[in-house]
Amino acid sequence: MTDRQTPEELAQEVKRLVSQLQAQGRNDLLLRAIGVPLLEELRIEAAKGKLSRLVITKDYRFILADYNKEVELQPVHKAVYLLFLAHPEGIEFKRLADYREELIRYYMATAKMLDKEKIIEGIDHLVNPLDNAINEKCSRIKKVFLDLMDEYTASYYYISGHTQKRFAGSSRIWYERLKIITLPRNLVSRLELFEETGVVFGEKTEV
Description:
Elements: H1 7-23, H2 27-34, H3 36-47, E1 54-56, E2 62-64, E3 69-71, H4 75-85, E4 91-92, H5 100-110, H6 116-127, H7 133-148, H8 151-154, E5 160-168, E6 172-180, E7 188-190, E8 203-204
Helix pairs in contact: 4-5, 4-7, 5-6
């Protein structure tokens, strides 16, 4: 291997070396060379090829169109999910209060039969940084997706953590502990959905 090789050439070289180790029955050395953290990342990357479109219908059903499965969530969980879908850049839990009105709109849309005061009360619990409600809701969302697919595929759909380094001047560094949904937004489709909120997550489509 040389510094002048292109990424494609390096990949071919790695493939050749992997084949040699496998031919010698030394998968143990291969795993040691790759390392478990990288292996996990590769499994997640491999899962990208079998992701399903997420279709959100006008009555707020969440459908995994290519799996022919529905994601069964309560209205409050759908409201939380819709918020994070609308913000692919990520949101810090401690700043959820900045999204209070948006969350209220989503919750009112997904829970039309619920009293508005109850909706506001529930959202106030979610955006309170001293309350564990948002963690509980995200844990429930994660479990629902894990019940529908393998853990590597599910990791694209549920709300997960992402740390982003920020710089202020030359000496100060701080971190944003963002929560995000990593599902590519071109896989999120709507069926005449967000007239009420004005938010569009993906392309209008038919299933």
